[in-house]
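[Q] Does anyone have a clean structure-token version of this?
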Amino acid sequence: MSVALGLYSVYKELQRDLESTLRRVKAIGYEGVEFYGPFIHEPEKIKDLLEEIGLVNCGWHTEWKLLQADTIDATLDYHTRAGTTNIIIPALGGPWQIGHKQSEDCADVWVQYAVRINELARLAEERNFRIGYHTHAHEFNTHFGESTPWSLLSEHTHSGIILELDTGNCIEAEADPAQAIADHPGRVQLVHCKPFSCKLGHETFIGSATDDNDWPAILEACSRSGTEWLIVEHESEIEYPQFDGAERCYTGLLEQLGQLRPAVDREV
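[A] Here you go.
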């Protein structure tokens, strides 16, 4: 498993200076980055910088509005030129009311999203992309009888579509990220490793005693389920903002990975 930084974690720095942000990410030790946000820079500039610096573009959070019939061709063209491989839908529904209003929330809406995501995946696969969906808390704690948005998307999207599980958002919804990963082998190729504290919210980091993620269980589930990228995304705005959190989380995650690998080797 490779380790990347979700650039949402340092988005203020990214907006100020693309190149210096990417160089600092590489200097910390990250192997890749996952982009977030609108297409501000020329895609060739991004691709060339990543190749020069030695970082992999492991994904790009791409808004739903950019994946519609009147926008999809331009979006795929941009990603082709930027060297993107994984196009991730960052959110649907929820408090942001992306795609539908909260008053319209129901199982049928999420099944229709799954149908559309399957269609997008077919278009994307023709140009060597993979499509995925990133989870928030509402996909786990919104219930339509025995179903949730997470269960509906998992069931109705085809197996080639990435389920990008966000560990912190999962815990916020009082769900178990390790179990969610284990339940979907081969589908959670990207995992957002997000520190989260039930008491402090996002004001924590990987490696802190206040972080409520069970990293040994999560990483073991990732290892067994075929996860390709562990993507650090921290959202601290007060105690560990921007690169402070990015550095702490990288150190903490590598420590956890170091403990995982000997255990896996012993079993083999």
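[Q] Thanks! Anything notable?
[A] The chain is about 45% helix and 15% strand.
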